[in-house]
Amino acid sequence: MAAPGRLNRRRFTIVLLVVTSVSLLTLDFRGFGPLESARSAVLGVLAPVGDFFGGIVSPIGNVFSGITDYDDLEARNRELQQRIDELEGQMASGQTAQAELDQLKASLGLTFANDLERVTARVTSLSISNYDDTIEIDKGSDAGIREDMAVVTGAGLVGQVTEVSGNRSVVKLVSQRGERFGVRFADRPYIGVAEGRGDGQVISAEFPFEGEIATDDVLFTMGGVSTYPPDIPVGKVTAINEEPGSLRKTLDVELFADLNDLEFVQVVLWTPEPG
Questions:
Q1: Which domains does the chain have, with CATH numbers?
Q2: Pick from 224, 100, 228, 112: nearest CA to 161
Q3: Which of 84, 184, 212, 258 has the most C-beta neighbours closer than 10 Å?
């Protein structure tokens, strides 16, 4: 029979080991760095204690293993999330590139002014306000661009070059308030004057009162001594305003070219005839 003093010392040792194990578990959950070696040492000491204490030691080992597996899983999840972020970024870049390509194709696929030489340019800045509707492009006199040349997209008229340097030009948009130019219909002899009103996609046009005009009628540039080359699509009539006693009709015209979404444009290398 074991002496009482020896038995008490053994119990004390076991209790001390269990308390130490619980303390190490607490430190591990808090991310204590040097725990790995201490954990192995404690498990090695506790292992021979016996079947009775195996029920205590085994869960401790499982908890340590579970914590390690959880850390590995977190690291793997971080790697996967990083890869997902990279792929999403590539997709966004691809979509941007596709949108630019679509606009470039649209600007190249003109169905008008095909007998005139053109220069394709990228829009580098856009300024639209109540008094100044302009864009800046990355081509200039080095590419043959001169002041007063027309600027278009595949959809229609955009504006006119007003400033030129070697590799840069400023373009006044047709929407700018007070910008006036001659327009006509494709199948009727009426001549009118279009005017920007600083209202984004809508400009005004005036025609003789007796003219037969309907909504959705399409307007084109007049050419000749006008500001722009002939036969460039401008926009379609969306409203007709007839004031009693007036000799003219005022039209609301929605522009075909989207002035708020310009990525590429083409400069038509044509200047107005002397007036």
A1: 1-108 (no CATH), 118-268 (2.40.10.340)
A2: 228
A3: 184
